[in-house]
Write a structure and sequence with these properties.
The chain is an alpha+beta fold. It has helices spanning 60-64, 88-92, 132-145, 155-158, and strands at 24-33, 36-38, 45-46, 50-52, 79-82, 96-109, 113-126, 148-151, 188-192.
Length: 195
């Protein structure tokens, strides 16, 4: 007698399990415009507190690439953020402002920064040497987006109160040998759940 082998039912395609359960903190810069915050490099306007990244072709190579969710591994798309805050944008440009973002979804971690599928503005930093007009413009935007205002130099310490820091072991080290003795060349790719 031959026994029937039980077959596993075919399961629908499920989303991947998250690598981390809480959003990670990052830092980014914007330009203050009459319409609110604007990305200094891409011109994307942040009219709401949360931004969902989409790949927007910008070159001939981008037009040939297959459509994909941001951040694409072989593409520059996604919401960009840095691992460490910088005061340069706020000190150099009268329209520059820096802040804290929490990032989740598909996230790619590079040696100096991240590219994410989703980002949420948590706080904006105000530089003490700004004019009252500059401070007022940032305060108006912060109130409209319901985000905190902090001193520019308090951003680094405050970030952990909004999201988890990126675990140091996940940051590529620029080609140096890791604990396994192998070189980490490429970025780390994660899926982060929104808590």
């Amino acid at each position: 007698m031959i026994e029937d082998q039980a077959r596993e039912p075919s399961l629908p395609s499920l989303p991947a399990a998250p690598d981390l359960m809480a959003p990670v903190a990052g830092f980014r810069d914007w330009r203050v415009t009459q319409d609110g915050l604007c990305s200094p490099r891409t011109g994307v306007r942040w009219v709401t507190r949360v931004l969902h990244a989409e790949c927007r072709p910008r070159s001939a190579d981008d037009l040939v690439r297959r459509p994909h969710r941001a951040p694409g591994h072989d593409c520059g798309c996604g919401v960009h953020a840095y691992l460490e805050p910088s005061d340069e944008a706020s000190k150099i440009s009268y329209a520059g402002v820096s802040g804290i973002v929490s990032l989740w979804g598909d996230v790619e971690i590079h040696a100096g920064g991240l590219r994410a599928e989703y980002a949420r503005i948590e706080a904006l930093g105000v530089y003490a040497r700004w004019t009252e007009r500059q401070k007022s413009a940032v305060q108006t935007i912060a109130a409209a987006l319901d985000v905190d205002i902090l001193d520019l130099y308090d951003l680094a310490d405050a970030a952990a109160s909004y999201a988890s820091p990126v675990p140091p072991g996940l940051v590529p080290d620029g080609g140096r040998k890791g604990r396994s003795g192998r070189r980490r060349r490429g970025p780390a790719r994660l899926i982060i759940a929104r808590s």
